[in-house]
């Protein structure tokens, strides 16, 4: 086992300030303390070679977990043991030598110098032999096809090019465990795809274990076999992405558009009467108002139940009272959203 | 029109809230103004006493300003802001996951700054010495009176001590970012004291002897005052030895404070992040 996380939790104190000038003056003398549980006890294990996605909405606690795992912040309770011997919160040097970290919104490269100078500094810091350094650099740049970029000042690189150099920098010392905090943030489609392709290669070919946080479901779908969903500091799901897919992603979203609200209410009532048969008791149908007085009813069912559900829902209304029926495959984002909603 | 005034009033109120929000910085800026005024009294004293009992000729005052300006150029002043930015913007976090002492980076940055400035002003100083004989003669006289090599060695020692002391103090200022969002308040406070008491603006030996003695227990005296005075040959060999010993002690204490601030800051960072 590469990483063993047990009951890792983090809480801290922040301050509340009343709005306006009065609040600012008041805060000069007194500030109200608020205790925040950024991460409630979470436990998980990561095996060598895994690609794990740490997902959750903004403020869920993903980055806090990542910071605790890299020893940047000390947990309030619990612990993480890496490589079977290192307490991550103590940030021992042998541990730091075996990990890498890329923060999408933080620069490690010197912006005023070409990337090669930052690479050379990393070589000196980690004591990478010249031959190993050269081979590894060529390998990374080969994957990106970015040999020309290393001699340009970093500040003249585009965001995507800079991220390629950041990735290269973080892997020059041959880390076994790589932490990525939103590495594709702000990147365009092509640049993000290139980063994803690179990450897939280093995970599959070089065997680097990766723990990734990202808001982009495309990153997750393409890269992560396993996902850990965090919401409000609580781990709400830890398992294979394919299981999430089978359990919920296999559903169809149905929208029945009706001529007015009364008809829509009847459709919803009919669906509810038979809802238990459709296999997803938790997913309540939703009534929505559309343009020109049209109202629609939205619900999700498995493909097998699709025809029956539509037939039952529309059984009590006339055909002319139905404007349209739209059927679509649920997206991963809405699947995650549903899991988060269930966890609250 | 009424709506415009109402919105302007709201903007004014919100901007005041922003200023008051950083409460430490607010108090420090308020103090800065007061200290600036007090510092002006010293300038007045310097002007009033020059050439009359202070031992400075008009030429001596001019040379002092050349020396003080040169030393000021050599001392890195942006390093505290750069360090506080690194801490606040997360570069610290990115660096802490590497097996390398983070503080060495700003230290090297400060040394590189001084060396680059030396390269810039070196040719200008040489040209001044070559083309202004009166200035050259001034230093030749000082060297003759002070014992040549001993004077030069003493000057280089005082200058080196000043640069180290400056680096330590500036880094400590930068580390305040662990405790406050805006560090410009304490920086202004520091700058006001620095300009008033370090010898950048006027020779500190214009101050009463007890004041100079008191100053010699602070880093300010060593950052500018001592190297300036030694360059002009206004410190005897015996006094210089005592000052250098005291300066080393002050710098060591300042370094301990720096290390303490760093360790405390990193512990705080580890506790809640920034």
In brief, what are we looking at here?
The complex is a heterodimer of chains A (344) and B (274). With 344 residues, chain A is an alpha/beta fold. Chain A has helices at residues 20-29, 62-69, 93-97, 115-126, 130-144, 159-171, 189-204, 217-223, 241-249, 261-273, 306-313, 332-343; strands at 3-16, 32-46, 51-55, 77-82, 86-87, 99-103, 177-181, 209-213, 226-231, 234-240, 252-258, 286-289, 295-301, 322-329.
Q: What does this protein look like?
A:
The complex is a heterodimer of chains A (344) and B (274). Chain A is α/β, with parallel strands linked by helices and 344 residues long. Chain A has 2 domains: 45-246, P-loop containing nucleotide triphosphate hydrolases (Rossmann fold); 251-343, BMC (bacterial microcompartment) domain (Alpha-Beta Plaits, 2-Layer Sandwich). Helix content of chain A is 37%, strand content 28%. Chain A has helices spanning 20-29, 62-69, 93-97, 115-126, 130-144, 159-171, 189-204, 217-223, 241-249, 261-273, 306-313, 332-343; strands at 3-16, 32-46, 51-55, 77-82, 86-87, 99-103, 177-181, 209-213, 226-231, 234-240, 252-258, 286-289, 295-301, 322-329. Chain A has a 6-stranded mixed β-sheet, with helices on both faces. In chain A, a hairpin with a 5-residue loop joins strand 12 and strand 13. Chain A is globular and about 80 Å long. With 274 residues, chain B is an all-alpha fold. Chain B has one domain (23-272). In chain B, helix 2 (23-49) runs parallel beside helix 9, helix 8 runs antiparallel to helix 11 and helix 8 packs parallel to helix 12. The longest helix of chain B is centred in the C-terminal third of the chain and has 36 residues, at 237-272. The two termini of chain B are 43 Å apart. The relative contact order of chain B is 0.14. The mean pLDDT of chain B is 83. Chain A binds chain B through residues 12-13, 17, 20-21, 23-25, 27-28, 64, 67, 70-74, 89, 91, 93, 96-97, 99-101, 103, 105-108, 122, 125-126, 179, and chain B through 13-14, 16-18, 20-21, 23, 26, 89-91, 93-100, 269-273.
